[in-house]
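Late entry, evening session. Most of the bench is empty. Finally got around to the prediction I had been postponing all week. Sequence below, unchanged from the version circulated by S.P.
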Amino acid sequence: MIRVIQWHKSFKYLVPMSAAIVIAGLVMVATVGFKTGIDFQAGINTDVQFEPPSMTVGFDGTGTMQLSVSKAEVTLLSKATSGESQTHSFPWTSFPTLKSVADGMAAVPGVHIILKADGAVPSSLLLGASQTESALTTQPSVLHYQAGASSTVNVTVEDLRAKLTKEFGSVSIQRVGVAENREFMIRIEDSGKDPSFSKTIHAKFASILGNAYGVDNVIVNSSTVVGARFSQALATQALWMTILMFSVILVYCSVRFKPIYAIAAVISVMHDALIMMAFIVFARIELNTTVIAAVLTIVGYSINDKIVIDDRIREKVKLNPGAKYRDNMNLGVTETLGRTVITAGTVLLAAVGMAFIMTGAMKDFAISIIVGVISGTYSSVFIGSAFVDWWMLRVESKAVKEHAASLGQLAQPAPKPKKA
């Protein structure tokens, strides 16, 4: 015989607390607003790394020459004007140092190599980066290598921000990976003042970084320009996707359970979404597509937990039809408590691990998941069940009054016949 926890006794304290947090979050959104990422604002999103050059590679032969750098080898693919192609591979196992790789590539007709680093550096440290798939020309391409802590290129977030803010104003910078990698995600907002922003931003950006840290020390891993129209469309799509998801949940729960359970489920997941929104705006976490993905993930988790609890409560109502709904609810929630704790606990273990290991957008994703799992587990009992309990109390109270009224009518004496 398990000890039934009287969950309903906490409803009058926890529901107002949740309402206060949600209202405070909405006020913050209205007054302060979200810290939106580049996904929802026009601008440029660039992944930049700072590493010293290892060598320059040029080609002045006939036909074309394609350079490819992987984690295991350097590959040169030559194509003659007649259409014939030939592949030249230089794996680290056979070419263990930068000098051996440079000498091997220089032996290919038309390829010219200038070694920039110590030839004894292991070739496994070569970085392809933006040159991973590069068509070689007479203008030499620069290959870099991962120098680690011994690098002479010193870059910090504060130094980067100071240099870029002078030209672009507000700039968002996040470190990617460990400090020794010197890799950063840089977001520059398009204020709308420059009509040719998308055409000139790359040149300005490269020029500032090149002048500050040396042109050969800058690696642009990726760069994406988001237009104002696209960012607005993305925000609209995210909003409609959320509304559609809530509608589907309402329809599904109405078919699976009574409509009142469906309404409670939607209220529960809306509560989770609003709690996460309040946390995001209070913690000043950047709102981007990764965080939106976390919100949608938690909504799916929360509705699953709510369905399991509702299914157990429905089972108890069928087994104990004469008992009050509140008693069946307390028993059903108590019996699913172990399953709820284990499920939430395993998800939290993974999310907490991600929060400690990851950086940047993935760290924000993990933190959002942690908050969402706690909120989703909480709302399944203290929000969704509280709403159904409140509704059922009204239904039971109305039934009692109607029953009392019917008994009163039966107890009244029959009216006396009127005298002729």
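Two things to note before I forget:
The chain has a mean pLDDT of 81.
Residues 360-411 form the longest helix (52 residues).
Will write this up properly tomorrow.
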